[in-house]
Each structure stands twice: as structure tokens, then as C-alpha cells.
Design a protein that fits this description.
about 160 residues; mainly alpha; AhpD-like; 8 helices; about 60% helix
Length: about 160
């Protein structure tokens, strides 16, 4: 059975890496710094969940491939968009990070609720929490750059972490 013809890829609007190299390098340096202070599994869950919330197909393509290459299960990656109904796939520490990711990413109340922050603080010491918050902020920057530039998903190949 053959697949029906697919819709053609869209063209990216602009290449931020080329047009604003200092900005790109600065965000990449932030990403490198936060990557050193957050558990790699939690980091990919945070990246994927923020990218889902921000509808960033490019970042979803990248971070789901990286997570799977690092040994994450397909089931945990797929269930992440409905984590509240599938909490049994995640540890309490991961859930706290996912919940904090949602609160930082979607600031509908204008602030991160105290109870969300306190639950995260139960699982992460202050240094870990600072790195986690920076990681959430970093993926949100990448998401906003990629969504606005209309980066095209589907071409990323994981380094096989």
C-alpha cells in the first residue's frame, strides 16, 4: 500500500544562525551551560514538553529523536503530552520538572504558582532548581526563535547521545 502524496515542506522564513550569529551563539552557550546542571533524562522531558506547549515542530523533531537515541522509551515520549493522565510513566521528580516546565512556559496567571515551585523545590536543591529553571527558559527561547523563523522539522539526525 502506498501513502498518498504529502503536503510539501514549507520554506523557513529566515536563518537566525546566519543573520544574527552572536545571538545564536549566546543562546547556544546558555544551552550548554544549563545542560551541565540538569539530569539528561529530565532535560529532554523538559525540552519536549515545552516544545509541545509552544507548538515547535522543529524542536519536537530534534528532542524526541535525541531522547530516543539516549534510550528513552517511545511510550514515555508519546505519553508526555498527556502526562497528567499517565503519571505512572514518570517519577515524582520528573513530574515536578514537567509541571514546572508548564508553569514557566505558559504564564497565563502572570507568575509561576507557589505550589508548583514548592513541589519542584521538594525534589531539587536550590542549585539544581536554578539550572532547571534556566533549562526551561532556554528551550522556550529556542522554541520562539524556531517557530518564528519557521524552521523545518524532519531533517534532524541525533548525535546518538
Amino acid at each position: 500500500m502506498t501513502n498518498p502524496a504529502r503536503v510539501p515542506e514549507h520554506e523557513p522564513r529566515l536563518n537566525i544562525k546566519k543573520l544574527a550569529p552572536e545571538v545564536y551563539r549566546s543562546v547556544a552557550q546558555l544551552e550548554a551551560a544549563v545542560s551541565k546542571g540538569v539530569d539528561p533524562t529530565v532535560l529532554e522531558l523538559v525540552r519536549i514538553r515545552a516544545s509541545q506547549l509552544n507548538h515547535c515542530a522543529f524542536c519536537l523533531d530534534m528532542h524526541t529523536k535525541d531522547a530516543l537515541a539516549a534510550g528513552e522509551s517511545v511510550q514515555r515520549v508519546v505519553q508526555l503530552s498527556a502526562w497528567e493522565e499517565s503519571k505512572h510513566f514518570y517519577t515524582p521528580k520528573e513530574i515536578a520538572a514537567i509541571e514546572l516546565t508548564e508553569a514557566v512556559t505558559v504564564l497565563t496567571e502572570g507568575f509561576v504558582p507557589d505550589e508548583v515551585y514548592e513541589r519542584a523545590a521538594e525534589h531539587y536543591d536550590e542549585t539544581e532548581l536554578a539550572h532547571l529553571i534556566a533549562a526551561i527558559a532556554s528551550i522556550n527561547v529556542w522554541n520562539r526563535l524556531s517557530v518564528t523563523a519557521r524552521n523545518v522539522p524532519g531533517h534532524y539526525h541525533s548525535g546518538g547521545k
